[in-house]
Amino acid sequence: MRLLLPFLLAVPLLAQVQVFTPQGDPLGPSVNLGSAAARDSTDFRFRAVNTGAESVALQTIAVNGSGFSLASPFLPVTLGAGQAYEFSIRFSPTGEGSYSAGLTVNSFTSLLRATAVAGPSLFLTLGEQTTELTASSLQVNVAVGQSLTVAFSLGNPNPAPIVLNDISITGAGFSVLAPALPLTINPGDSVPIPVRITAGAEGETSGLLVIGPRRFSIIASVFRPQLAAPQIVLGNVLPRNGQQLKIRLLLDQPALGPGSGTLRATFTGATEDAAIVFPNGTREVQFDVAAGSREATFDGAAETVLQTGTTVGTLRLDAIAETGTTTWTYRFDRGAVVVDEAVARRNGSNLEIDITGFDNTREVGSLNFRFFDRAGAPLGGVITATAGGQFGEYFAQSSLGGVFKLRAVFPVTGDATIVGSVLIEIANRVGRTDLQRLSFP
């Protein structure tokens, strides 16, 4: 008896390569790629996948047929089990009609079929110039927060009418104002299809414009525009000490996007003047400019104010933006004493006079008083008070610039009610200030 011993013959598992569309559909012996516009170039992407359990060397990718081309792949490539290699085939028909080509990937083969049809021309209008787009992509620059309308239009260069069933655009921030569909464009006609791009964050965003068989990629480069330095415009005809200086900021051109900056005040003088401040109590205030505007705002207001102080010196304003700084300077020269308020009153047998004002030289020297009776006749001569020393002591301790408030008290012997009014002169080194006659109630 013979005993037959079975044995197993090891058969190697062959690695296999299958070609898929990007959507994951496998290619069969023949595949219809659809239609494309004549004289356009359309790329079709594929994936060669190792569907076997062993590694495979991808040695060959080739396409053979009129109108089809393949970018030189970097081969050979070793694909592990389940790994994929992507490649593109470009369809560039020179005219209308049916086209086919054989695709070979290692031992895999498939017949690619496509149809070239008549397509419309796409035109871009910039200002008074209109240009036909021959490339399949267009790049535009858009500022953050800006809405840009691109003036596209369609034309028909063919001898027969074109019927379009699809005019659309995809991509965040992209929209197209398309006419009613289906759209018939007769030879030589033109139809506007403006595309609107609303920019969000910085970076690049893209939209795909579909016009029947044609595809155009619009790449929007979204940038944050830098704000130009605005011009400083003063509301006051001539700045003076002791006032609120009205300030506006204006750009030469409308801002491409929103921006902000700083308006800064600095003062240089013989002494510091704490009264020189903006409404926020400091010497800096922020301004904002909205997209498309030439005017800066301060907390929503079209202007701000600056207290000019009461001291001799140079005031400087700097409007500081990202691209630079504009500067305005003004010199407050020495001037006579300015009186804001003067009040005369009786206090028993005393006559009291309160004077509030400022001396930007901080050098008040003397005061002259001349009293009159109720009928207007002079009562005696001029009373002079030499107050330079007292003013000097006061200003040496004051941080309020040239501001002062004084009270002059005149004790009266006898009947004080006969005094009806007083004329006052106050002087510094620059000159003399005459006050209007004050009446005693």
Classified by CATH, the class of the largest domain is: Mainly Beta
Low-confidence stretches: 1-15
CATH superfamily of the largest domain: Immunoglobulins
- How many alpha or pi helices? 1
Tell me, rounded to a whole number, the average pLDDT.
91
The helix/strand class is mainly beta
Large-scale geometry: rod-shaped
Return the CATH topology of the largest domain: Immunoglobulin-like
Q: Termini distance?
A: 154 Å
Report the C-alpha radius of gyration, rounded: 44 Å
Strand percent estimate: over 45%
According to DSSP, the number of beta strands is 37
Second-tier CATH architecture of the largest domain: Sandwich
What does the main sheet amount to? 6 strands, antiparallel
Q: Could you characterize the architecture of this molecule?
A:
2% of the residues lie in helices and 52% in strands. Strands 11, 12, 14, 17, 19 and 20 form a six-stranded antiparallel beta sheet that branches. Strands 32, 33, 35, 36 and 37 form a five-stranded antiparallel beta sheet that branches. The longest helix has 10 residues, at 388-397. With 441 residues, it is mostly beta strands. The chain is built from one helix and 37 strands. The chain has one helix at 388-397, and strands at 17-20, 30-37, 42-50, 56-58, 61-64, 68-70, 77-79, 84-91, 97-105, 108-117, 121-126, 129-132, 137-143, 147-155, 162-164, 167-170, 174-176, 183-185, 190-192, 195-198, 203-211, 214-223, 231-234, 244-250, 259-269, 284-289, 304-307, 313-321, 324-332, 338-347, 350-358, 366-373, 383-386, 403-411, 419-427, 432-434, 438-439. Residues 1-15 have low confidence and may be disordered. The chain has four domains: 17-117, Immunoglobulins (Immunoglobulin-like); 121-223, Immunoglobulin-like (Sandwich), CATH 2.60.40; 231-332, Immunoglobulin-like; 338-439, Immunoglobulin-like (Sandwich).
